[in-house]
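debug: dumping io for the single-chain case to check the tokenizer round-trip. Nothing else runs in this session.
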Amino acid sequence: MKRIIIGTAGHVDHGKTSLIRALTGVDCDRLKEEKERGLTIELGFTSLLLPSGERVGVVDVPGHIKFIRHMLSGASGIDLVLLVVAADEGVMPQTIEHIQICELLGIGRGIIVLTKVDLVDEDLLELASSDIQDFVSKTFLKDAPVVEVSSTKGKGLDDLVRVIDEQIQTIQEKKISGIPMLPVDRVFSIKGFGTVVTGTLARGFFTEDQEVEILPGGHKAKVRNIQVHGQEVDKAMAGTRTAINLQGLGTEDVLRGEWVVPTKIFRPTRVIDVRLNLIDEPGKGNIRFHIDTAETIGEMSLRNIDGIDVARIRLKEPVIASFGSRFIIRRVSPSTTIGGGYVLNPFPVRRFSEDIIKDLISDDFSRHIVGLARDAGARGISRHEFAAAFADEGPKLEKALQELLSNGEILRFDSVNDVYVHTSYVHSLKELMIKGVDKYHIKNPSSQGMSREHLRSSLKGSINIKLFHKVLQDLVKKGELEESGPDIKKAGFRASLGDALGGLGEKAYSILIKSGFEPPKASELASELRVTAKDIEDVLGFLRSQGKLFRIKDDLYITDEFETRLREKVKMFITQNQTLNPSDMKEITGVSRKYAIPYLEYLDRIHFTVRVDNVRKLASSLKNQDR
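debug: decoded output
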């Protein structure tokens, strides 16, 4: 079976459905109102067996302007279009619009089928043929074969089948690589099976028992059965009309215009960057956006970069898209086609950037990766996100990533989650971190350094924490920054109180050493010395970093001499008495409960003592007991 889809296009009542019925024996007008009115409203699907033995899928689309959205749903998966033009009418408005749409969707092959030739004489037939040639001369059908047929009389049908067979031999089948996305164009229920969805599979493949989800709705299901051209198969591959029986879902859980996709890969998006091919001025106001079988309203911000039209489109409803996904845009009113194009970035993060777009419109796939990495910024982008953006996680992506890693254009900073960043952000981050530490030293010369968290929070934007630590490690390794315990400082920096606060430090230390085990609070010290809370905080912090002071709690400090005495007294007491309680602490230090409790808590905090019920024991003695 050739994985090729052929489809009709053309004006209403030019005989598209009659032609398909004559070729396949299947009436694609399945709805009662379609049969009564003789007008195709919905999409019709069947298959055609060719003389070569190949079977291809067939999509019959409605021609009436009122049902253009159904035509768009069917046309999105077509490989070979049959442009149907009635000999008694020639080229009509929907003939033109349908071919414009096919061209915008990237369909590159077709056959011109001149129908109802039994209703005209030779002169009118020649006039219709000339009319068609003038029209297609500027389209992708300029060199397409022309076949004259009468569906009712059977004339030319064998010739048409032969030409179709010839054409499909040179059409490249869709690749079965890539991640599958099945746009849903029909939802129905079959007794004994349950909910069935159909669509044209554009890439990859689905298999029986595969776990899938329906997006953007979010329902999860399991593939129970698969049919291709009415035959049960265990795998549906790209380029086929596919019916999937979804286990565990009702017909109300799946909507036409949604996508069946593998679980945990894709996510819905409302904002996309695109490349455009405009056939009319878009004007102002909203647009009608068609992608696969979905339709929604959107706002478009149009730009021109090096003569190429690009845009950022914001959608009212979420869609599923990947790089290269084709779409059509139409006016809301009057309902006419403006243009179409393909998706460049399904999940833009940054403001619209010409440099990033230039990467994405490049012919070089590796530049597309660079564009997405640059757009992701310092938060980084994972391989999983790359795979979703390109709907591909195969060797092409892997090769491009390895090349970019080798030439240093991107950096992998999280090997566990496989996350990458463009190296321009690494360089910028290094500069910002060095400047941040410099600024901190200028404002806080008495501080030993800047905490890691303070440094990270001072950096603007969304920065991946693992990238932050990776860059910090590189700066320390190269000697541009130094680690001082939990703090970060500029290489060679030495904390100093300076001339203004140097004398204040001596005075504060003198007061604290005279106070012994009953030192004043930091606020009381500031008041006594008649300085600001900020100044005393800087001084105490500096003395602490120098090992001259120890912080008992937030606003209480003692000198190094008395901190040593405190531990000696406690150790001696517990050695002699096994335990120590709050009253004992008051007795051995000569302080009130106001100081005794903070001292007990401090010694617990530094793991010198351990609280057991309401008494303390030496932590070292407990460790020895455990041994």
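debug: round-trip ok. Residues 436 and 455 are 7 Å apart (CA to CA).
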